[in-house]
## 1
Amino acid sequence: MNRLCLITVGVFGLLYIVALFLLAVGTFGLFGQERDPLAVLFLIPLGVPWNLLLSDFSEAIKPWLATAAPAINLVILLWVCRKFSRAS
């Protein structure tokens, strides 16, 4: 993979990990933090467009799918980077 692809995938992966950490802190009240229902706010933009397709799923599974949606984008980024690095 070329350098720009590695940086892009790395930054996206780091943002995903930070957003998951903030979700855990806000949801479970870790480190003395109050519980915050808006803790998922940093995770939602990373999962677009998949988060927009969740309206047909049940309410019980939506939080899990919204949490996993950025992983789909990360896999797509990795696939595109590998595809283009082999082509050039």
Note: The helical segments are 3-28, 62-87.
## 2
Amino acid sequence: MITMYLKIHENPSGKIVAVCDKELIGQVLEDETRYLDLDKYRNFYMGEHVEEDAVKKALENFGSANVVGERGVRIAIEMGIVEESSVMNINDVPYVQIYRV
């Protein structure tokens, strides 16, 4: 069963990993302080349809990562890449941006 989208963007400053739970693509997430348009920016996240193992492999080596949704964020927490206290929620959807310096 395909559960997430994974897209890796290569640029001169490093690799950007974008992960989004499949069912969130096309939605607009908004609350009092945050806004994330997963319809307008669907191409940023929509790469391969993947399972957990592919996301884990991608999150082993990156410069920055944008992870949206319960499944993707849970993986990042389990891998120790991000602390649970750093996760933002937009309309109860977890979202995290991770930067390695």
Note: The chain has a mean pLDDT of 94.
## 3
Amino acid sequence: MKKVTMYSTPICTHCNEAKKFLEDYGDVELEVFDVAADAEKRKEAIEKSDQMGVPVFEIGEEIVVGFNKTEINRLLNLEK
């Protein structure tokens, strides 16, 4: 199973779209952190991405900022 860590906020439209996109694949283990409610995870996301925007994805050793389907598909080798 492929593991993805996602930093997001509940009101972020792109975050919610990304969650649905990843949940549609049965072999992706998605761990989601709400950076609006968790200051430590917010700091962690900023340190990893050098940005304050969400969503931020950690896939293996790679960081993806924003809901970039092409990059996420490439890193996870997903096919629909």
Note: The chain has one domain: 2-60.
## 4
Amino acid sequence: MLSEVCRYLNNWFVDDGTKYYGPFEIVDGKITAFNDGEILQNGQYFRIIGSVFNDGVYKYPDDELKDETFEGSVWLMKVPPEVLKISDEIDAWEAQYSQPDSPALSPYTSESFGGYSYSKGATENGIGSAWQGVNGFAARLAGWRRPRCRY
């Protein structure tokens, strides 16, 4: 879920000095070779880009990675604890409400048939019933959102 939240925010919580480029090797599910030696600390989040099997956000060393060698980049992340907390809450909400038959994900805001009708309550910011539109998630994350550049 943290990957999706960061993508939504357009913010990966990295500084240019913490982006590493080049060949990387993942052996036994762990990144074992960097050009600059060991750069990850226990509990640190990082983003992999350019991998066939492992693109995304991970927590070192808890998340299992698939073995491969790839040319790409690894970004060391400094995710604020509040963003991690909100991401966990979103994950719990999705586990409960994002099932295929969940009324929360219905594209319909109202229905009427056979003399029966109903309407769902309005959602925040008109976003809909995805996680961005419920429980104040979007509003709580707004302070970390970065504008998208179009050029």
Note: Helices lie at 2-9, 81-97, 137-141.
